[in-house]
Design goal:
By secondary structure, the chain is mainly α. It has helices at residues 3-8, 20-26, 52-55, 61-74, 78-94, 104-117, 120-130, 137-147, 153-172, 180-202, 207-216, 233-245, 251-257. The protein folds into 2 domains: 43-117; 133-266, no CATH class.
Length: 266
């Protein structure tokens, strides 16, 4: 372009040669407004007709079945929750393809379902599993819940021993209470345990009566007399032994030296 061309050049709007109808046709056409409805989970989405053992091997399968178990328990469908929960535990612990690393929470649900249904055969299995975790306060808490499932006086006494042991372990264990979320959980757990302890005491629970009975009991034949015949004699011996054996360690002495206070004072 020459200098003269640059001087004479100018921009020009060719719209002046376009009719008003054509201008209107060129206007951008906006899409119709569509009401947006957020996707909502359908109730019971976690139920499936697929084989549950296969579902457990899916990436999100265990979480799906866990939701189903929790939902059934919430709506008091204890039979279905129990069956699914037991399958969940079995596959998680036997299959290398299943990515579940911890069945503790599911075990708790299964124990509660079994207690609700009076399935003492299942409770026996759960109690056997818990013996390897004797220093976990949640184990003793579950034992108390199992005993209170269909409580009679002696079961209530065993439950009182178990919940007392749970409180002791929980409150004498070091928690990093300087961390807010840990402190909140500690306070919540302690409050719940204390409420359960108080409830069992109101029902007449007295661990000293179970201890006194065990001093004189000789075996399986004595269980029926006190309504404990749905439990194995060896399991009751283990509970009794763990309670008495705790005094043979320096745990309590160490706690006193570290300033651990009684539960009621915490």
């Amino acid at each position: 372009m020459t200098e003269s061309d640059a001087i004479l050049s100018f921009e020009f709007d060719d719209d002046i040669f376009v009719s008003s109808d054509e201008k209107a046709a060129k206007k951008e056409v906006l899409p119709e407004k569509i009401d947006y409805v957020a996707k909502q989970d359908t109730e019971g989405w976690f139920y499936t007709k697929r084989n549950h053992e296969e579902v457990m091997l899916d990436r999100h399968g265990p979480n799906q079945l866990k939701n189903a178990v929790e939902y059934d328990y919430l709506h008091k469908r204890y039979d279905r929750a129990l069956d699914t929960g037991l399958l969940y535990i079995r596959v998680a612990e036997s299959s290398k393809e299943c990515k579940v690393s911890n069945t503790r929470e599911m075990s708790e649900i299964v124990a509660h379902c079994a207690a609700k249904l009076g399935r003492y055969d299942i409770l026996e299995q759960m109690l056997d599993r818990k013996q390897t975790r004797k220093l976990d306060y949640r184990v003793w808490r579950q034992i108390a819940a199992i005993m209170m499932g269909q409580a009679n006086p002696m079961r209530c006494h065993v439950a009182h021993l178990a919940i007392t042991r749970a409180l002791y372990i929980m409150t004498s264990t070091r928690w990093k209470t300087s961390i807010d979320i840990v402190r909140q959980r500690h306070e919540k757990e302690k409050q719940q345990l204390q409420e359960e302890y108080d409830h069992i005491e109101k029902q007449g629970g007295d661990l000293t009566k179970f201890i006194a009975w065990m001093h004189n009991a000789t075996g399986t034949e004595d269980l029926k007399q006190v309504g404990l015949d749905t439990f194995a004699w060896d399991d009751l011996v283990w509970i009794y032994g763990e309670w008495t054996k705790r005094k043979d360690t320096d745990t309590e002495k160490d706690n006193e030296e570290q300033g651990v206070r009684p539960v009621r004072e915490l």
